[in-house]
Design a protein that fits this description.
- The protein folds into 2 domains: about 100 residues, Rossmann fold, CATH 3.40.50.10090; about 110 residues, Rossmann fold (3-Layer(aba) Sandwich), CATH 3.40.50.
- It is built from 8 helices and 11 strands.
- Strands 3-8-7-4-5-6 form a 6-stranded mixed sheet. It has a 5-stranded parallel sheet with strand order 2-1-9-10-11.
- The model has no long low-confidence stretch (mean pLDDT about 95).
Length: about 220
Amino acid sequence: MPITSILSTKTLYKEYKDILTKANIQVTEYNAIAIEFVDFDSEMIVENAIITSQNAAKAVIENKLVIKNCFCVGEKTMAYLEEYGQNVSKMKLYASDLAHYIIKHHNKDTFTFFSGNLRRDILPNTLKENKIGLKEITVYNTIPAPQKIEGQFDAILFYSPSGVSSYLMENTITNETLFCIGKTTAEAIPEHFKNIVIPSSPTIENVLHAVVKHSKK
């Protein structure tokens, strides 16, 4: 089914919306979640840090921490850290892949995991199961911002598991095509919904390009 109208559960920068506008796709958008940064205690110089989101990266930078070796998830997170002079030792697209890399190559090291309050358990649990030292520090809270959305859409765009759960607090999924930024977000969709599209790389741009590609079918 051609896609001419979408709902984005995150407000998009103009350059992102331009991708859709050029494809004659109408966009309705809102923020399904809100981010609240919190005070936290940490050594100013961190030997090995794990950062799996841009929000955690922003918290680290704003608190002027220096990381000797940063292990991160996502191209955008890596770019942000490097922009502010942090040394990124390894980047993986998914937390599970990063956990397996650390187990294979850094199983004698200890790590500090900077994350949000709703972070997934797979990475810390995998490291702990493999006897890797891990200190966890919460640096921001993810707060649901449920809102009843009126109208019908050909597709809904989701960017995080918490965004999915927030949307479902006030709305239902019917026969829309669901575009999820990555497999972790897709796993938050109720199992009986099968019309899910996941881009090859988990970035907002790739989600939008996937929408445009499907709009031409």
